[in-house]
Amino acid sequence: MVGLKTRATNSNVEAFIDAVAHPVRKADAFVLLDLYKQITGLKPVMWGPSIVGFGEYSYITKVGKEETFLRHGFSPRKQNLSLYLKAGMELAPDLLPALGKHKTSKACLYINKLADIQIDVLTVLIAKDVEAMEKKYG
C-alpha cells in the first residue's frame, strides 16, 4: 500500500505564496500566513507543492501504518483558499454560520476571499483547531 503523497518539503513558503497568480488570493495567503504564525506559534513549512503547514502529527491508519501529516495549514488554490480545519470545525460547529460565505468538506473550510468572511471568527476557528489537535496529539 502506498503512503501519503503529501509530505513536508524544503521549499520556501514566501516564494510559493509570492508566485500565486491571483492577486487577491496571494494577498489573502500572506494574511493567513501571518495569522497562522501568530496563533500556532509555529514555523510554516511547505507540504507538497501547494500546502502551507504548521506543525505535524502522527497517526495510525486503518491498516495499522503510521503516517505523518500537517497539524494546521492552508492552500491558496486556483478556485479558493482551502484551510485544513477539521478539528476546529468539529470543536466549534456553531461558529460556522457566523463566519460568512464559505463551504466545507470533511476536513477543509473553503473561502473565495477573506473579504467574504469575518476574520475574527476565522481566528477563533483556527485557535480551536490548535486546541483540539494539542489535546488529541499532545
Automatic annotation (TrEMBL):
Could you tell me which InterPro entries the record lists for this protein?
YdhG-like
Organism domain of life: Bacteria
One protein family per Pfam = DUF1801
Q: What residues does the YdhG-like domain cover?
A: 26-128
Q: What is this protein called?
A: YdhG-like domain-containing protein
The species this protein was found in:
Agaribacter marinus
